[in-house]
């Protein structure tokens, strides 16, 4: 089966796995997906991630994070930029998710970063997804 939007597939897999209280989720790997997982790990939304090499594309294994009372740290995750409609924002137009409690993942010319980091660096880019 061919996936037309691999980033959207990754976000859906993470969202579904966190709702069903899975410990980990396996996603077909790519460099962009690994960078998104790195940003999510640095922001504290996932516990860990690693790339498992196989003879094909590779597998990105994402370990989900839960609170002590077994509630998911990820309350919501939403894909913004789609293959048919890209969402580019300038520095001043970058969104603040839940008044700064959430995070927007932004693809800039300096690499993938959060909306806060992009504002500090005074650069805009393509808004990939929102997470809260």
Describe this structure in words.
The protein has three helices and eight strands; from the N terminus they run αβαββββββαβ. It is α+β, with helices and mostly antiparallel strands and 132 residues long. The chain has two domains: 6-64, Ribosomal Protein S8, Chain: A, domain 1 (2-Layer Sandwich); 77-131, Dna Ligase, domain 1 (2-Layer Sandwich). Strands 4, 5, 6, 7 and 8 form a five-stranded antiparallel sheet that branches. A three-stranded antiparallel sheet has the order 1-3-2, covered by helices on one side. Strand 2 and strand 3 form a beta hairpin. The protein is globular. It starts with 5 loop residues before the first helix and ends with a strand.
Describe how the helices and strands are arranged.
Layout: H1 6-19, E1 24-28, H2 31-42, E2 46-52, E3 59-64, E4 77-79, E5 88-89, E6 103-108, E7 111-114, H3 115-121, E8 125-131
Antiparallel strand pairs: 1-3, 2-3, 4-8, 5-8, 6-7, 6-8
Can you describe this structure in just a few lines?
By secondary structure, the protein is of the alpha+beta class. It folds into two domains: 6-64, Ribosomal Protein S8, Chain: A, domain 1 (2-Layer Sandwich); 77-131, Dna Ligase, domain 1 (2-Layer Sandwich), CATH 3.30.1490.
Q: Output the CATH class name of the largest domain.
A: Alpha Beta
User: What sequence of helices (H) and strands (E) makes up the elements?
Assistant: HEHEEEEEEHE
Rg, rounded, reads 15 Å
What is the count of DSSP helices, taking H or I runs of 4+ residues? 3
Question: How much of the sequence is in beta strands?
Answer: 25-35%
Distance between the termini: 30 Å
Helix-and-strand structural type: alpha+beta
CATH topology of the largest domain: Ribosomal Protein S8, Chain: A, domain 1
Question: What are the low-pLDDT stretches, counting only 5+ consecutive residues below 50?
Answer: none
């Amino acid at each position: 089966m061919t996936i037309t939007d691999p980033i959207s597939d990754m976000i859906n897999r993470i969202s579904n796995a966190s709702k069903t209280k899975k410990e980990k989720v396996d996603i077909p790997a790519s460099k962009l997906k690994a960078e998104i997982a790195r940003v999510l790990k640095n922001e504290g939304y996932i516990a860990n991630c690693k790339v498992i090499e196989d003879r094909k594309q590779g597998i990105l294994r994402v370990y989900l994070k839960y609170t002590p009372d077994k509630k998911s740290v990820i309350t919501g995750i939403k894909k913004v930029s789609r293959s048919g409609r890209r969402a580019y924002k300038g520095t001043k137009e970058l969104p603040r998710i839940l008044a700064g409690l959430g995070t927007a993942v932004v693809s800039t010319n300096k690499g993938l970063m959060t909306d806060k980091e992009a504002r500090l660096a005074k650069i805009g880019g393509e808004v990939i997804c929102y997470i809260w």
